[in-house]
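> Could you send the Dephospho-CoA kinase prediction when you get a chance?

Sure thing. Input:
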Amino acid sequence: MLEIGLTGGIGSGKTRVADMFAARGAALIDTDLLAHEITAPGGAAIGPLVAAFGPGCLRPDGAMDRDAMRALVFSDPTAKATLEGITHPLIRSLTESRAAAVRAGGQHPYLIYVVPLLVESGSWRARVGRVLVVDCQEETQIARVMARNGFTRAQALAIMARQATRAARLAVADDVIDNDGPPEALAPQVARLDAKYRQHAG
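Output:
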């Protein structure tokens, strides 16, 4: 089965593009959604998180307090390493079990992993057959993040500074979708790649 890693910087439009492929029959595994799953109330990461960071890392409903943890890991590299040491193996295990189910099911022409930190993680390039990058100008990213998240320009830039550069993402890309234009410019690009991936898979 053809397996594709889809990535892009914050505000690039990864989710919109992934949903368009899903509408065409692709199987999707979104590592961000898996991260939310394991840090939800009762999730697999909750016990180890409390053991590492204390009960203050949780919201009253028992989920991980994402805002508090984001602030902590931004200021403390050791905390970041601890958090990733807990969550990354769980996400990887869940990713692999979901992928095995997709392969066994045989209902999809190809599988797309949505991985925001595909370039940064290092191992993904060897795990997928192709890398698809959703690309846009950095100013477009900043404007979208400010509008969507209510962040200041400085906050948007701080997040982008911790991600791979646009050039680094494009350097590993087998395929690129340009998302600088209007939303309607995406459909023909997705259609072209869907046909290409089906041909590969066939």
